[in-house]
Amino acid sequence: MSQASSQPFLQVKHLSTIFPDGNSGLHALDNISFSVEAEQFVSVLGPSGSGKSTFLRCINQLEKTDEGAIWIDGELAGFRRDGDALYELSDKEIARQRISIGMVFQRFNLFGHMTSLENIIEGPLTVQKRPRAEVTEEALTLLKRVGLSAKRDAYPAQLSGGQQQRVAIARALAMRPKLMLFDEPTSALDPELVGEVLAAMRDLARSGMTMIVVTHELGFAREVASRVVFMDEGAIVESGSPHEVLVRPQHPRTKDFIAAVLK
What global pTM score does this model have? Predict the structure, then answer.
């Protein structure tokens, strides 16, 4: 069920996910093997439909996998091992594993009837059953961290898109995750609001949070990422340092993608 402590924080081995497509099926993910060390920031790039979002959803067990395995902090995700046999975990057990992973989506998904503060404390109160005073104090600290102390009592409709996304980041952090996943967190924002969200993420990366970020913000990836992964057609085509992948890419598909984004 677990791996030695010398193993990476996140390890994915031979992961495949097949979506129904006529008589055969479409490999949304095709035999992916991938690892992330603790405190590493990995940026995932690729065209639409390349499997990036599906990959994140599989890590967070929001999407079923057909083959392969995922270990997070030494624990096998979604299954328990009994001798040579594997058994799927119950929904309750999967929910327990998912608590250690924070995820920020393209859309902010805030509760419209709750203030910024209420959105942030909801999960720790209802899921983790933590004391309200402790949770509220942490939430106020997180709001300050993302530059929104003055918006604690504002409702989502009173916030800009960038402010809503920063509340969503604070909400995910309130669960004290070991791993943060970002699925194109700036893609739904107006261009002038992108910078404030990237600044919050940059601060989070510098604090040592383990992060996987799907993004088209190449400058941000080059500046902040420890490693860059390029995906196409459900597979990892190229992986390396930001300089290797973004400045001196080797694969023709990577070169074409970067050239198109930078036009």
Answer: 0.92
Q: How confident is the model at residue 19 (pLDDT cuts 50, 70, 90)?
A: confident
> Phi first, then psi: what are they for 135, rounded to 5°?
-65, -40
- List the 235-240 sheet strands across, edge first: 101-104, 179-183, 210-214, 41-45, 227-232, 235-240
**CB contact set of 112 (below 8 Å; sequence gap of 6+):** 155, 156, 157
| Interatomic CA distance for residues 215 and 32, integer angstroms | 19
Q: Please, are residues 24 and 65 in contact by the beta-carbon 8 Å criterion? A: no
Residue count of the chain, please give it: 263
Instruction: Supply the Cα-derived Rg of the chain in whole angstroms.
Output: 19
Contact 224, 218 (CB under 8 A): no
Q: Which residue has the tokens 């609001």?
A: 193
Question: Residue 258 and residue 21: Cα distance in Å, rounded?
Answer: 29
- What digits encode the pLDDT tens for the residues 222-232? 999 999 999 99
Read off φ and ψ for residue 113, nearest 5 degrees: -90, 5
DSSP state of 70: E
Residue 1 pLDDT more than 60? no
